[in-house]
Each structure stands twice: as C-alpha cells, then as structure tokens.
Amino acid sequence: QQVLAYENGVGDVADPLGGSYFVEDMTNRLEAEAEEYIRTIDNMGGSLGRIVTGEGRDEISSPVGIVDASSEVIDEGGIRLYLRILAFISLSLAILNLLPLLPLDGGHITFSLIEGVRGRAVGREVYERVSAIGIALVLILFFVGLSNDIGGRSD
C-alpha cells in the first residue's frame, strides 16, 4: 500500500500556498462581519438608554412593524438584504431577552446570581412583585411598539 501511495503521489501537495488566499479572504470577511455586529450591539445599548430616557420611543416596533419592514426589504433589496435583516432581528431579540426583567431570561439569570450570592432563595412575595413589575414593563414596551406601528410614529 505504501508503494502504491508513493507511486500515485497520494501524499504530495501540488501547491502548499494555493489555498492561502481563500483562507485569508474568508478570515477578512468574517472579521468585517464581526465588527459590524459588535457596532450593532453597541448601537442597541445606546437605543436602550434612549428608550429609558424617553427619547427613543420612535425606535420601538412590535411584530406588526417587523413584518412590514421585512416585507419592504425583500421587495426592494432582495433575499440577501432580507437575510441580514432577519439576523439583525434575531440579535435584537436575543439582547432584549437578556434584560434583567423577570419574565425574560435575563431576569432569571439575575435572580439566580442574587440567590447564589445570598446563599438562600429570594422570598416568594419579592419574586411575585418583581415578576409583576417586569411583566408590566414588557407589556408597556410592546404596546408602545404597537402604537408606533399602527398609529404612526410621532416624527
């Protein structure tokens, strides 16, 4: 078998540097995409700050606005831009889900950390009150987005 492999050149590499351009190009594109997503995450943090201060009310959308915007994108920009918008929406929802509001995953993580530091569980009454406040805040956020999408934005 070794003789056959040697005679047929099975282990030989024709051009050891032949694929390096492909790898370098792929690495550069991945780096550019990663930088873009990091800037997007940074901008989302600023948007959350503006929402808290009341300046970013017009930046909130509900599922109605998301469907409307994504259908416009697919009509105007094609499938590639549409997939980028879907990735952006997924990233936005992931970050929103990590907010420390109790009905969201971030709230459960926060409570787990608090319980770990304290060494005992948080009282049921506290848990229920914080849950009610968190649900109210999420509903307010949803209804603000819905009013923006249905009633129009206050430009």
Write the layout of secondary structure elements.
Elements lengths: L1 H7 L11 H34 L9 H35 L7 H14 L5 H28 L4
Task: Note the main attributes of this structure.
155 residues; mainly alpha; flat
How would you describe what is shown here?
The chain is mostly helical. It contains 5 helices and no strands. It has helices spanning 2-8, 20-53, 63-97, 105-118, 124-151. α2 packs across α3 (63-97). The N and C termini lie far apart (76 Å).
Broad structural category? mainly alpha
Order of helices and strands: HHHHH
Task: Report the average pLDDT across residues.
Answer: 79
SS strand fraction? under 5%
How far is it from the N-terminal to the C-terminal residue, by CA?
A: 76 Å
Tell the overall outline. Answer: flat
How much helicity do the residues have? Answer: over 70%
Rg estimate, integer Å: 25 Å
Secondary structure tally, helices:
5
Tell me the major beta sheet. none
Q: How many beta strands in the DSSP annotation?
A: 0
Query: What oligomeric arrangement do these chains adopt?
Result: single chain
Low-confidence stretches: none
Describe this structure in a few short sentences.
With 155 residues, the protein is an all-alpha fold. 76% of the residues lie in helices and 0% in strands. Helix 2 (20-53) crosses helix 3.
